[in-house]
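Sequence, please.
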C-alpha cells in the first residue's frame, strides 16, 4: 500500500465502491471508486503502457468499454470510445479533468 497520511490511509482502507445495477433494462451500470492520487514524479508528455490483464480485470475493462460505447462517450480529441484502449484513456482523462 502506498505511503499516505493516517487520515488518507483510513479513507483508502475504507474505500467506498458504490454501484447501481439495472440489469435487463438496457441501462448501463455505474460504479464510483475513490482513487488515491500522489504527487507528480515524472514530467513526461507521452507514456506507453503494456499490461497483461487476467480475469476479473480483463472482463471489467471490456465491460467498461461496452458501457462507454453504449453511452456514446468521447475522448477529449472527439473520438468515440469503442474499445478497451480508448476506455482506459477515457478513465484517465476523467481523473485528469477532476484534478484540474
Amino acid at each position: 500500500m502506498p505511503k499516505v497520511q493516517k487520515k488518507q490511509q483510513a479513507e483508502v482502507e475504507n474505500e467506498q465502491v458504490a454501484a447501481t445495477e439495472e440489469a435487463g433494462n438496457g441501462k448501463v451500470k455505474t460504479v464510483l471508486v475513490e482513487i488515491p492520487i500522489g504527487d507528480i514524479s515524472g514530467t513526461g508528455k507521452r507514456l506507453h503502457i503494456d499490461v497483461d490483464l487476467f480475469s476479473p480485470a480483463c472482463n471489467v475493462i471490456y465491460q467498461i468499454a461496452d458501457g462507454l460505447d453504449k453511452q456514446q462517450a468521447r475522448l477529449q480529441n472527439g473520438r468515440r470510445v469503442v474499445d478497451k484502449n480508448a476506455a482506459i484513456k477515457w478513465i484517465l482523462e476523467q481523473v485528469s479533468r477532476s484534478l484540474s
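Residues 48 and 85 are 11 Å apart (CA to CA).
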